[in-house]
Structure formats: C-alpha cells, structure tokens
C-alpha cells in the first residue's frame, strides 16, 4: 500500500475529513486529495506533520511497516501543557482549542490580542478595539462551539 492510501486509512481511523487533516497540517485540501490519489508524492514536511499531529509512526506512514499509532510520541499539546503547569484548567482548555483552530481563526485571535495590548498602551480608538473584540469572539465561538468555557 502506498503513502496516499495509508493517509486515507488513518483519516478513516481518526474519523477526520480531508479538509480537517489538510487544515491541521497546513496544506490545501486539494493537495491532500492529490497525495491520497497518488497523483503526487507526499513531501517530507507533510509526512512529518501528519506523524507529529496525530502520533503516527513515521516509518509506518512511509513504508507500511510497524504499527500505525506511535504510542510513545508526545503530542505538541502535551508538551506545551507540561511547560505551563501552573495554568488553571480554563487556561489549558483555551490553549488546546487555539492550537486546533485553522489559520484564519488563529489570525482573528492574534488580532484580538494585539488590539488588547494596543488598548492597554493607549493606541487605537475604543471603537476599533471593540470591533476587533466582537469579530474575534464571534469567530472563536463559531469554531469551538458551546461548552469550551471550562
């Protein structure tokens, strides 16, 4: 079985769409489709990103040898959480949900934080800050859905 077929197999195993996987590893859905259909080869960056994000055994992904899941791998989220052990559960949930957001929503959150910092420094108008806050909050709420507040 080729790399593209194994990628499709792991998507089935994890119950994720091509779009979800593509967003998580930073490529376009069409590019992932081409890899799965063996129209193009998966790049090293794609293979490493999939392995890292989903704890997939890189050797299995490349060759089909060994187990699919790399049980000993530490996820990026676990690594970050171990470095910020003094945060409360809500802080950890916010960070975890942020990591899972697609780039467009991350951009909105960054704009929100930048606006808050600028407001604290006295830059920009109150209306500009409120506009950014409302937009970013709405985007985050749509993305993570109800129940994320902790």
Quick description:
This protein is mostly helical and 150 residues long. Helix content is 68%, strand content 0%. The radius of gyration is 19 Å and the shape is elongated.
Helix content: 55-70%
Round the mean pLDDT to the nearest integer and report it. Answer: 80
Kindly report the oligomeric state of this protein. single chain
If you consult CATH, what is the topology of the largest domain?
434 Repressor (Amino-terminal Domain)
Shape: elongated
In CATH, the architecture of the largest domain is Orthogonal Bundle
Poorly predicted residue ranges: none
Q: What is the β-strand count? A: 0
The count of domains is 2
How would you describe the overall organization of this protein?
The protein starts with a helix and ends in a 6-residue tail after the last helix. It is elongated, with a radius of gyration of 19 Å. α2 crosses α3. The protein has two domains: 61 residues, Orthogonal Bundle (434 Repressor (Amino-terminal Domain)), CATH 1.10.260; 60 residues, no CATH class. Helix content is 68%, strand content 0%. The chain contains nine helices and no strands. The protein is an all-alpha fold and 150 residues long.
Strand and helix map with partners:
Layout: H1 3-14, H2 18-25, H3 29-36, H4 44-54, H5 58-63, H6 76-83, H7 89-100, H8 103-120, H9 126-144
Helix pairs in contact: 2-3, 8-9
Feature tags:
150 residues, mainly alpha, 434 Repressor (Amino-terminal Domain), 2 domains, 9 helices, 68% helix
